[in-house]
Amino acid sequence: MKSSIKSLFLAGMAVAVACVGCKNKSSQAVAEEVQSSTPKEVLAARLASMASSGKVAFGQHDAVAYGHDWRGEADRSDVKEVVGDLPAVLNWDLGLVEVDSVNELDGVPFEFIRNEAVKHNAAGGINTFSWHVLNPATRGNSWDVKSGDVVTEVVTEGTALNDSMKVWMGKAADFLLTLKDADGELIPIVFRPWHEHTGGWFWWGVPNTNPESYKKLWAMTRKVFDEKGLGDNVLWAYSPDKIADEAEFFQAYPGDDYVDIIGTDVYAFDGEGGIDLYRERVDRNLSIATKYAQKTGKLAAFTETGMEGVVVPDWYTRVLLPLLQKYPVSYVTVWRNAPQNENPGHFYVPFKGHPAEESFKAFFANDSILFLNDIKK
Ligand code: BMA
Questions:
Q1: Residue closest to 372 by CA, chosen among 5, 56, 124
Q2: Ligand 1 cavity residues, CB under 6 Å
Q3: What mean pLDDT do residues 328-332 have?
Q4: Is the predicted pLDDT of residue 361 greater than 80, yes or no?
Q5: What is the pTM of this model?
Q6: Using an 8 Å Cβ cutoff, are 359 and 317 in contact?
Q7: What is the DSSP code (8-state) at residue 320?
Q8: Which end of the chain is more exposed for a tag (fewer CB within 10 A), N or C?
C-alpha cells in the first residue's frame, strides 16, 4: 500500500524547494513566496522534490485517450485497469495542430486533450507535450526526411518557410493558451519540442540539418511562445535520443537560457537479447543528463522509453526500475498503448491479462515510483 504520508512529504518538499533561499523566513513569508511563484516554478519545484527524494513520477503518452482494445471512452486507462491508479504524468502530442486539424496525428481530438489535461492538472497530475510537426516543405509527416535540410530555411528570416513556421508555432502556442484551470489561470506544462534530434528519422534531426540551425529552431520556438504569453507556465525539455558520447549529447544543445529539463529518449529493442545494450545506452544518457542537471540547477527526466509489446514480462521490475533508482530523474514517460485493431502489438504498458501485468503491479507498488494518487496536492 502506498502511504498518504508520502504525498504529504512531497507537498512539504515542494514548498521547501520553491523556497530555496528562504531558510530563515516565517511560514507566512514562505506561504506568500509560494503564492507569488509562477505556475512553472511551482511545477519545477514539485519535480525537483521528487528527484531529490529519490522518487520518479510515472507517465504514459495518451494514457487516457485510448488503450489496447478501446478508444475514446470516458475515465478509462489501461494503466488504471491494471494498477488502480492513473499515471502521474500524461504526455500529449500537438501533431497537426499546425494545420488546424480537429484531431492530433493519432486521432485524439484536441478538445479531448484540453479537457483531460485540465482535469489531470486539477487532480494534481502533470501534463507534458511533444509535437510531431509536419514537414513544412513537403507537408509530409515528421518522418518525411526526403527534402533534405529544411531547418536552415525555416530559421532564416524572410524565407517562405520561416513565415509559415512562425504561423505553425503560433497555432501550437494558441492551443496551449487554452489550457486554463477553473480560475482562468494557465496550467503549468512541460513542452518538449524537436525531440530525438540526434537521430535522422525526423526532418528536424541534426543529421538532416546542422547543429546551429537546430539551435536556432529552438530559439525561434521559444520566442514565439514567449511573445504569445506562455513565459510563466511552460517548462522546456530537451530530449536527445541515443548518442555516442557527451559531446554528441550537447552538440546541438540550445543553451541553458532555453532549457529547463534535461531529458532523453531511449527505447529497448530486441527483447531479452537487447537488454544489455538498452542498459548501456540508458546509463550513458541518464548519467550525462543528471550530472548536467545537477551542475546547472536544472531538472532531469527520462522523457521517453519503453519496450514495445513488453515482450520481456519482468521488464518493468528487472530492467527499468533499477535504472530509475540509479539516477535522480523527476519523471519517466513510456509511449502509447495503441488500439490493437489500428496498430497491432504497439503498446508499452501491459493491459489486463498480459504476461507483464504482475511485474507492472510490483513496479507500481514500489515506493520510489509515483502515480497520480502519490503526487496529488
Ligand atoms: C510513434 C508511433 C506512431 C505514432 C507516433 C506519434 O512512436 O507510436 O504510431 O503515430 O509515435 O505519436
A1: 124
A2: 93, 105-106, 132, 335-336, 343, 346
A3: 98
A4: yes
A5: 0.92
A6: yes
A7: I
A8: N
